[in-house]
Design brief:
Helix 2 (47-68) packs parallel to helix 3 (88-105), helix 5 packs parallel to helix 7 and helix 8 (236-261) runs parallel beside helix 9 (277-290). The longest helix is centred in the C-terminal third of the chain and has 26 residues, at 236-261. The strands form two sheets. Strands 3-2-1-4-5 form a five-stranded mixed beta sheet, sandwiched between helices. Helices cover 43% and strands 19% of the residues. By secondary structure, the chain is α/β, with parallel strands linked by helices. The chain has helices at 36-40, 47-68, 88-105, 114-125, 165-175, 182-190, 214-230, 236-261, 277-290, 306-318, and strands spanning 5-10, 15-22, 26-34, 78-84, 109-113, 133-138, 143-150, 153-159, 266-270, 293-295. It has two domains: 5-120 and 302-318, ATPase, nucleotide binding domain (Nucleotidyltransferase, domain 5, 2-Layer Sandwich), CATH 3.30.420.40; 130-300, 2-Layer Sandwich (Nucleotidyltransferase, domain 5). The two termini are 35 Å apart.
Length: 342
Amino acid sequence: MKDILILAIESSCDETAAAVLKNGREVLSNVVLSQIEKHKLFGGVVPEIASRMHIEEIDSTVDKALKEANITMDDVDAVAVTSAPGLIGSLLVGVNYAKSLCFVHNKPLVPVHHLRGHVASNYIAFKDLEPPFICLIASGGHSHIVKVKSYTDFEIIGKTRDDAAGEAFDKVARAMGMSYPGGVSIDKCAKLGDKNAYKLPKPHLDTKYDFSFSGLKTAVLNTLNNASQKGEEVNKNDLCASFQNTVCEILTDKLFLAAEDFNFKKVVVAGGVSANSGLRDMLKNKADKLGFELFFPPLSLCGDNAAMIGSQGYYEFLSGVRAPLSLNAYATMSIENLNWQK
């Protein structure tokens, strides 16, 4: 069987990335240009700045990915690009660049859902991992529990009602005066604190598998405000440890509850929050205790990157997914039933 080479492009937020994947699992190149230092000045991602930086860097990033893979566009079988969800201006840069490449070089265009890409990061890390399995996707904008029935068939069984886990991390970190990205800052401080120092609430929802982090975030902000009004000092390491532990307990408990209820023995974790050391430790301990197989990607593949888009793009390509050169980008789109023509 002929090897299939996918050139992948990712520009959904604040990383300009390009990669070349062989047969969906072998990474020939993976170039990621981060904008974090620029956005740190503003305490978070500024969409207009992100879009402009993508425009400035995307051509050189793709060129570098092709050179590192030691191929040319003639060798590429298809171009995969993140088309949803994300910052619309950022997405449009990647989508339009991919469309241009496909037009000039007469290559198939394969649209990829960003969250499906995060799931696929595990296919790169674990060569023998195959669906079906249950997956927690936790990132700055999303917190989902998903049945992955096949490489291209997904069913959401739980999701956040308000803030995503990563969003809560960023907002709490900002309130504490920590630098962006907040999840990294909180993780560092949490290692120095007492997780039992502050009693923080967990939401009680009418569905077993959904998440809500808004009330937890508000409880931390109230703790900070009350201490400030009374002229008291807050032990930030303890508060970070307590907050992080509570988030991790919520994510871990609901994930394994769903795994047990739906009779899955393979449990997969993906997304930027999967890099959190507290979450990884808690998930591993619970998986070992309950006898589940647990998979999460290496730290290098937890954040946004194009290798994961290339991996998912390969499976979308095999399933016959193609997009016309009129393909648009979409700020929101469900992971389940994709409609690139809407």
